[in-house]
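input
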Amino acid sequence: MDYHESLWLYFTLLFGIIIVPGMDMLFVLANSLTGGTKRGLAATSGIMLGGAVHSAYGAAGVGILVAMLPQIFNVLLFAGVGYMIWIGISLMKSSIKVEAVGPGTARSTWKAFRQGAVTCLVNPKAYIFVLAVYPQFIKPEYGPIWLQGLIMGIMTVLTQLAVYGTLAMTAGRSRDLLVSNPNTTAVIGRLAGLLLVVISAISLWQGWKTA
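output
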């Protein structure tokens, strides 16, 4: 698998995870419904900042492992694949439901931005997910670690902008889709889970061949 194929796999995985209704999505939706598009986009911007921070520490962690503990890198890669497959199977078996969104707590666009960043940064699943994902897609043979991390970080924030920004600008319709059509929401989660399992299996195969 060359670098461009790896990036496409990462983007597919990233999109599948971001589009699954979760804490970040509901935060954007709540701010959009109670404060309008401007506040929803502010919340989106905060979440994008959180995504950039997650990407930075993920790339830094891979760089440290490659430089100091190359043997541990492969262990983390395989452990990460196992974790991602477990998440994927869990999503495929679960029925995600989104309840009606209550009033947002943000009183200004600046506060929505700050709360969005905190919402993303304090999510422990995001830290674990990044540590599981990045070793599979950032590899020394693809070039400088920092450059790979930068590219993946840009992809992350742009995907967040596309998904959550669209959500913020179409809040009313988005809410009706998520709340009034639970079957659609469940299908989104299960498809994302299937993507996760497939991409993890591909990463496992590639890692096994090069180990």
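quick obs: The radius of gyration is 18 Å.
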